[in-house]
Amino acid sequence: MSVASGATGPGIGLLAAAGAGAAALALEVGWRQGALFVVALLLGITLYQSRFAFSGSYRALLTRGRVDGVRAQALMIGVATPMFASLLWAGEAWGWEVRGAVAPVGLPVVIGAFIFGVGMQLGGGCGSGTLLALGGGSLRMGITLAAFCFGGFWATLHWPFWIALPSAGPVVLGERFGWAAAAAGQMLAMAMIWRGLRRWDGVPPRTGERRRGRLRFPWSLATGATLLALLNVATLALSGGPWSITWGFTLVAAKLARLAGWDPDAHVFWQADFQSSALASPLVDDVVAVMDVGVVLGAAIAAVAAGRMMAPGPIPPGAFAASVAGGLLLGYGARISFGCNIGAFFSGAASTSLHGWIWLAAALAGNWAGVRLRPRFGLDG
């Protein structure tokens, strides 16, 4: 698809849908919800334009020793950390209470993140990657997303088992050592990782290149990392919490299950105040669900503008099976580990929550296992 046809056809339609969606949310729910939808659109555009990937970066690291994607993640955390720390230290933004992405440090995080890591390599993406690829026209990611939603809901039915496993409770470095010290220490660590990985990598850094369309594609990973950090800070300030993805998937699956006759009152997870309220409220009231839609739409806008929207095609049986299995693992793992690469790692680490770093270590181990399982489904190693 050329950018001209995109601009005069689907491109204008997508832009109109984005504007109408933001306006409708602002009028129906409030200006913050409309603003967060715009932030999500920008997140989707940034992810697509910079080709900012987590599962692909980990696979490149494990199979080819390529580190540019992982270095970009270190940069992203380093940029976000001081801004998160200042907001979390203040405890509010414009009179709106803000809280970091904090979760207990325990076996559920380790097990869930490992499961999620395996799912990343089989499903073909992570939390953000699934939305990104879906917005870019990937039919296979639609299969992964459907299984992702069900996997997250499935995990909530087993919640009593998982919360009974050993846990040390939340550990927030900013609260333990002071926000300034914790932020400085984490920024120094990210700088050392970024520099150390640069010496290790023998592959020249990726640069932007002119492709079809009016947008330069791709943007540099450094540009993507910086913009993602700034947009996550905007999410924290506007919503009171950092960027998250997978809760929206679980909520959608639960609403569909309830329509099919499932009784939420019989399950501990859905008896909690937040979950019960979200299940009873319209989906447009939920920040995470609304932003998930915005990310997909933003990626679609970028794909059309760059003239790179994928055409639907057949999915090989092995890839279909991998999408189903990977999606189930992604959803289940994300729920029991309190998030995905965005909600648990990115937002958790930027909040100086120790669980975010433990999540990353376990997820990398899961990615290693997932890479070795890929050939069994006919996927490239």
Could you explain the architecture of this structure?
By secondary structure, the protein is an all-alpha fold. It has one domain. The chain is built from 18 helices and four strands. The chain starts with a helix and ends in an 8-residue tail after the last helix.
What characteristics describe this protein?
381 residues; globular
SS element count, helices: 18
Averaged pLDDT? 92
Biggest sheet, spatial arrangement of strands: 1-2
Unreliable stretches (pLDDT < 50, length at least 5) are 1-7, 208-214
What count of domains describes the coordinates?
A: 1
Q: What string gives the helices and strands in order?
A: HHHHHEEEHHHHEHHHHHHHHH
Radius of gyration: 20 Å
The quaternary state of the protein chains shown equals single chain
Residues in helices, as a percent range = 55-70%
* Number of β-strand runs: 4
Category by helix and strand content = mainly alpha
Which descriptor suits the 3D outline? globular
The largest β sheet comes out as: 2 strands, antiparallel
End-to-end distance = 30 Å
Percentage of residues in strands: under 5%
